[in-house]
Amino acid sequence: MNLKTFSRGGVHPPEHKLSSGLAIEELPLPEVVVIPVSQHLGAPAKVIVDRGDQVKIGQVIAQSEGFVSTNIHSSVSGKVLKVDKFMDSSGYRKMAVQIQVEGEDWEETIDRTDDLVRNTVLKSEAIRKKILEAGIVGLGGATFPTHVKLMVPKGKIAEYLIINGVECEPYLTADHALMMQRTEEVFAGILVLMKGLGVEKAIVGIENNKPDAILKMKQVAKGSKVQVQGLKVKYPQGGEKQLVQALLKREVPSGGLPIDVGVVVFNVGTALAAYDAVNKNRPLIDRVVTVTGKSLEKPSNFLVRIGTPVSYLVEKAGGLPGDTAKVINGGPMMGKALSTLDVPVVKGSSGILLISEAEARRKEVLPCIRCTKCVTVCPMGLEPYLMMSLSEKARYERMESEKVLDCIECGSCSYTCPSSRPLLDYIRLGKAEVGKIMRARKAV
Predict the structure, then answer these.
(1) What are the C-alpha distances in Å from 207 to residues 211, 304, 366?
(2) Which of 129, 151, 149 is nearest to 64 (CA)?
(3) Do 99 and 170 fall within a single domain?
(4) Residue 263, exposed/middle/buried by CB under 10 A (0-12, 13-18, 19+)?
(5) pLDDT band at 1, cuts 50/70/90?
(6) I need a labelling partner for 117 at 20 to 30 A (CA). Which of 98, 253, 347, 429 fits?
(7) Domain boundary, last residue among 226, 253, 280
(8) How many domains does the chain have?
């Protein structure tokens, strides 16, 4: 097999795919869910239900507000207990709808059968409308509204659809499980996205540590215009720009997007959600979440309703191990620690990782020895040691000129640093400040 990869930087952290090969387990419903109205990049949706209302599964409870926004649906049937601010995974209180679960009353328009609907008769504009109405966002973690990405900007041309089946973060296996167990539906979703985008060519990129998924996807794509390409195992191959470079040898420009080189990228989970929305009239009300960790009794791939408490997932995976020091929302490289387990699963929740005291303990931070390892591994060609220094000194204008916004926050620099310097922490801090400065400049 001709395996491809991106050319600049990258690291090889241990994979620890503890839940690889495990069947997706559908969790029973919790007693109460909390559904945030901002689970996507862009404007939060506007709540259209009140305390005391009865809602059905799949009912819109918050409507899209603005161009970059999308709908939020009830993932359960029951009674609205509160419309208020609740803690989310960021550690801040955000507006959400709390619902008491009562039965399984679904919206009548949703096709709940397992019958495969391979093709759609809808045209591209109708597909985009369906995807907006269904609240579909990027399920790889970025949560950008999918209908917006399907609208090619004026002056740009989409030539390729790339489907990201890389899942390069250590521990996470949700996408792998989807490709193995929902293969036909994922492929049908790819066809939906191709039609919505108006392209004739699609490539599915999958790392070679998932040979079974490569084989299954190749079998289902045989005879179609969808190519399945194996990739060498290297982190962060799942980054959009790295994946475009690996598969097509096209370089996304600084500050640019894949569409600047004729490409649109979606995650395999997003492809499945697009299938559900367009071919089954089913909004985004659940997703597969990997719950894992070396000390966890039962690492799992759970199919979970949006709004389910993270504490409930941990309980179903065997409970919180006694040596747990951190619970990470996402994977160990790009994920962020949760301050509490009493936060809900949202559309962007790909994994919950429990880390022991020994794994979580930070080493002593030593002075930079100018070894340039962080520069060598940076997939964006940046100088992380310099970015950290500038961030410490609040030299944000210089950070902007050094293209800090190109940083994809992959954590390769921190991973490889022999002095255990918190490079990514400081870069994130500076990046946020640079973003504020740029927004303020535009507002003048």
Answers:
(1) 8, 25, 35
(2) 129
(3) no
(4) buried
(5) low
(6) 347
(7) 280
(8) 3
Residues 142 and 262 in one domain: yes
What helix, strand, coil percent values describe the chain, rounded to 5?
30, 20, 50
CA distance 16 to 6: 22
CA distance 135 to 154: 24
Look at residue 399 and give its three-state secondary structure. helix
pLDDT in tens, 281-336: 999 999 999 999 999 999 999 999 999 999 999 999 999 999 999 999 999 999 99
Per-residue pLDDT tens for 163-182?
A: 999 999 999 999 999 999 99
Q: Which residues contact 124 (CB under 8 A, 6 or more apart)?
A: 150, 195, 196, 197, 198
CA nearest to 38, candidates 83, 72, 80, 61:
72
User: Could you tell me if residue 10 is inside a domain?
Assistant: no
Do residues 199 and 158 make contact, with C-beta atoms less than 8 angstroms apart? yes
Residue 182 sits in a domain of what CATH number?
A: 3.40.50.11540
CA distance 364 to 221: 50
Specify the long-range contacts of residues 424-428, CB closer than 8 Å, at least 24 apart: 424/384, 426/387, 426/388, 426/391, 426/392, 427/384, 427/387, 427/388, 427/391
User: Are 279 and 335 within 8 A, CB to CB?
Assistant: no
Please state the pTM of the whole predicted model.
0.95
Q: Which residue's structure tokens are 């550690």?
A: 91
